[in-house]
Design a protein that fits this description.
single chain; about 350 residues; alpha/beta; Rossmann fold; 2 domains; 5-stranded parallel β-sheet; two-stranded antiparallel sheet; 14 helices; about 45% helix; about 10% strand; globular; thiamine pyrophosphate
Length: about 350
């Protein structure tokens, strides 16, 4: 911890440059407003579901900010704020949750893998991309995000083992928000910490306060640098908390108390960093208002984009399956085209009707 919950510097080490912290604060303000807007879109029926990362914004923003342009990030379903912080269009980030086609964005544009709903399945993919980059002699580092629940999945252990054996340059960031939906951490593992899980695979583990952006930037930057220098995979456990329910379909009051939530709200990562920046004179009301206005603009663009109805193209069902369509796909596409043509012909007015 570099900043205590009240935003006061601790004696744990030097803080990152203040402009990096201001940039991170701005990213967290955008992330918080983005979470609020997406949750509102669910209530309005424009999104089917939304897993909010409110309370985890420091982890989300730090993960995006410590990477170079050529690096990759592999997110989970709860990491939409990290995807936006990485530069992906907010609307494209959410269309998967709207029910639009594909993942909504081009993964190669910003080196952001598709949002992953099944727990931990993205972790072996991340290890594979990192291994491939190492074989090609590229300086690429992959940062793979997951939650505490994912560490109970086989994919997590397979990814760590593979990455360690082949010294793949991948950083595994576990956002330990204390619950796998409703299952508390105490029912998930008997290990002293999730960071300890790397020991059995020869992967160094480190813990960090996940609500302290300054500490996250320092720890994750170090992990990325070590991975890039050829020291193999790194495991970072960030202790944080999701302030909202698991999704809009979840009743969090059934498994956690109001007192527990209130205790973590008091450790809000935005409030902590804002207190420090104001005390340092790096943030005043005018700059804060500009940052808030930028966040509101992101919310507006997100709202307008998601509310726009898109007419689907049935041929997209066949266009993006294989780079070279199989004979079966060609045949099926022809059948669909024929059926659509028949429907269009049936719906067209006859000459007699058109003349009336």
């Amino acid at each position: 911890m570099l900043l205590d919950p009240d935003g006061r510097p601790t004696a744990a080490g030097a803080l990152p440059p203040v402009e990096d912290l201001v940039r991170g604060y701005a990213g967290m303000v955008v992330a918080r407003r983005f979470n609020e807007q997406a949750s509102a879109l669910v209530r309005q029926g424009r999104l089917a579901v939304y897993p909010s990362s409110s309370g985890q914004e420091a982890c989300q923003v730090a993960a995006a900010h410590v990477l170079a342009d050529g690096d990759w990030i592999f997110p989970t379903y709860r990491d939409t704020a990290a995807v936006v912080a990485r530069g992906v269009d907010p609307v494209e980030t959410l269309v998967l949750l709207k029910g639009d086609w594909h993942s909504g964005y081009d993964p190669y544009d910003r080196h952001v893998a598709p949002l992953t709903t099944p727990l931990a399945t993205q972790l072996p993919h991340a290890a594979g991309v990192a291994h491939a980059a190492r074989l090609r002699g590229e300086p690429t580092v992959v940062l793979a995000l997951c939650g505490d629940g994912a560490t109970s999945e086989g994919d997590f252990h397979e990814a760590l083992n593979f990455a360690a054996v082949f010294r793949a340059p991948v950083v595994f960031l576990v956002q330990n928000n204390r619950y796998a939906i409703s299952v508390p951490l105490s029912r998930q593992t008997a290990a002293p910490s999730l960071a300890h899980k790397g020991v059995g695979y020869g992967v160094p583990g480190e813990q960090v306060d996940g609500n302290d952006l300054a500490a996250l930037l320092t720890v994750l930057s170090g992990a990325v640098a070590r991975a890039r220098a050829g020291e193999g995979p790194q495991l970072v456990e960030a202790h944080t908390y999701r302030m909202q329910a698991h999704t809009n379909a979840d009743d969090a009051t059934r498994y956690r108390s109001d007192e527990e939530v209130a205790a973590w709200v008091a450790r809000d990562p935005l409030v902590r960093l804002e207190a420090y920046l104001r005390a340092e004179g790096a943030l005043d009301d005018a700059r804060a208002a500009t940052i808030a206005a930028d966040a509101e603009d992101v919310a507006r663009r997100t709202r307008d984009g998601i509310n726009e109805d898109v007419e689907p193209d049935p041929e997209d069902l066949f266009r993006h399956v294989y780079s070279r369509p199989t004979p079966q796909l060609v045949e099926q596409l022809a059948m669909v085209r024929d059926e659509l043509a028949r429907d269009a012909l049936a719906a067209a007015p006859t000459r007699q009707e058109a003349g009336r």
